[in-house]
Amino acid sequence: MTILVFTSILAEIPIEEHQHQETTIFEWLCSISAKARQGAEPKFFITVEGKRIPQDEWALRVIKPDDVVRLYPMPNGAIG
To answer: Is residue 79 part of a domain?
Structure first.
């Protein structure tokens, strides 16, 4: 399946699409970003099948190829 990256929660068309196999959210992030590997605080949130996944669950939350995964930037001033 595809991980879709959006510019805002209101955007209808993703700016990026990434293919993935079964993996955890954290493993996928580390595969595309050195900042994730270094433990940088993310400025985005992730939904899987429409449910927001708390950051402290990313290392354990497995995403499967048929899951609908979306990545959105945090609104300014929001707390993840």
So the answer is: no
